[in-house]
Specification:
With 184 residues, this protein is mainly α. The chain has seven helices and no strands. The longest helix is centred in the middle third of the chain and has 21 residues. It is elongated, with a radius of gyration of 23 Å.
């Protein structure tokens, strides 16, 4: 340990409650600078002193899902999605839960595109996101068109990548077959 550093270098330090507005602004800025890990760290610091801070929860959801586009970091990818799913339950209203669930599913689908996942799996994620956006849109204020904008993004992704469902397996009706030998 460097002699000028006091305390344990592996120990997190708490921020003050008064510094939260500045920390929120910094987390937003790091997201815009494409530094989602820094934004995530700041949000976790905020939530350590104010566990119900809605801005920090929303930015944290966005910062984690920003990282879905880089499935190159495969370690803990599923856990990251589960982390977001647990954060969704802390959102204050049905609109926010539906909207951010849609964001999570959309970004998960886009991340799967980057690793050349099966087209039907990506399509399923985007369609599930669209279901959430549709529900969010019905709950939104008339001037809030965020869910519509996200819906349109999904439609364009589906068209751009020509995503298709898996062909349906033919249905075989076993009752049509019996033990009778055909007449000759």
């Amino acid at each position: 340990m460097h002699p000028s550093i006091e305390g344990n270098m592996n120990q997190l330090r708490a921020i003050s409650v008064e510094s939260i507005p500045r920390a929120i602004a910094k987390a937003e800025r790091y997201r815009l600078l494409n530094e989602p890990r820094c934004a995530e760290s700041i949000c976790r610091d905020i939530l350590a002193v104010d566990a119900k801070n809605q801005d920090a929860i929303k930015i944290l959801i966005l910062a984690i899902t920003d990282q879905f586009s880089s499935f190159a970091d495969r370690m803990g990818v599923r856990e990251r999605k589960e982390d977001v799913e647990s954060l969704l339950s802390h959102l204050p209203d049905e609109y926010a839960r539906r909207y951010y669930t849609g964001v999570m599913l959309e970004r998960w689908g886009k991340g799967l595109l980057g690793v050349k996942c099966d087209s039907s799996t990506v399509l399923d994620m985007l369609e599930r996101a669209m279901v959430e956006y549709e529900a969010a849109d019905k709950l939104a204020d008339p001037v809030n068109q965020d869910a519509v904008l996200r819906w349109n993004t999904c439609v364009r992704l589906i068209a751009r990548y020509e995503l298709k469902s898996k062909p349906q397996e033919p249905v075989i009706h076993l009752e049509a077959f019996d033990d009778e030998v055909p007449y000759r």
